[in-house]
Amino acid sequence: MSDWQAQQQRRFRRLDADQIVQTVAALQTRIEARFPDAGLGRLVAELLQVAQETVARTEWIQQPNVPIRVGVGCLCATILLLIVGLFHHISRIQFDDFTSSVQALEASISSVVFIGAAIVFLVNWEGRIKRDRALKAIHELRAMAHIVDMHQLTKDPESVMRPKPDAKRQMSFFHLNRYLDYCSECLALISKIAALYVQEFQDPVLLSAVDEVEDLTAGFSRKIWQKITILENLGKVQPETHEPMPGE
């Protein structure tokens, strides 16, 4: 297999963080061109910043934390030396009866169990630090998904069919369709950004959190597409009277 073929295979078997960032930037451009004063455009601008921060975070997660690993290695070596010294000391003690031998053996086993737990804790320390940082970022993405849902809550077909005189912005059927479609795209990008955290860091807790974000965004998207389907079924979606925006 040539290098070009290997690159093509890799392209379709993993998420490209740079492509996701470019897609978010393109979505921001389209929203600001179509709805220049909409809060959704500012939200996607913030999502673009989050996507850029995610690239930096995932690179940090993939890199080994050398100071922590060196410190953990030194602590584990010290603990192992203490264990060796403990068993050497016990082997030199002469026990007079069976009870003393059992008590000494029980104390030794307890010490080994606690020391083993300490070693496991230290070895997993780096992973927990990375997991906590990723979980905080995923929590931000979950909050942004809820904010996108808030933006589309009041955008329903009835508001176009029966416009209110005091409404700040009146949307045509076409513009409402585009706005809802932008919301759906935004939710899809949020789930893809979350998936970047588990592409190279296979942590069960993190995988579960990312799955929850994907389920959340999929549920919100289903509500949006129900509205879009209603618009299409009404047959009143107005055709574009001008050239579509770039990327549409």
Descriptive overview:
The protein is mainly α and 248 residues long. The chain folds into 2 domains: 15-61 and 126-234, Glutathione S-transferase Yfyf (Class Pi), Chain A, domain 2 (Up-down Bundle); 66-123. The protein is built from 9 helices and no strands. Helix 3 packs antiparallel against helix 6 and helix 3 (39-62) runs parallel beside helix 8. The longest helix is centred in the last third of the chain and has 31 residues, at 204-234. It is elongated. 20% of the residues are buried. The model has no long low-confidence stretch (mean pLDDT 78).
Compose a concise summary of this entry.
Helix content is 77%, strand content 0%. With 248 residues, it is mostly helical. The protein folds into two domains: 15-61 and 126-234, Glutathione S-transferase Yfyf (Class Pi), Chain A, domain 2 (Up-down Bundle), CATH 1.20.1050; 66-123.
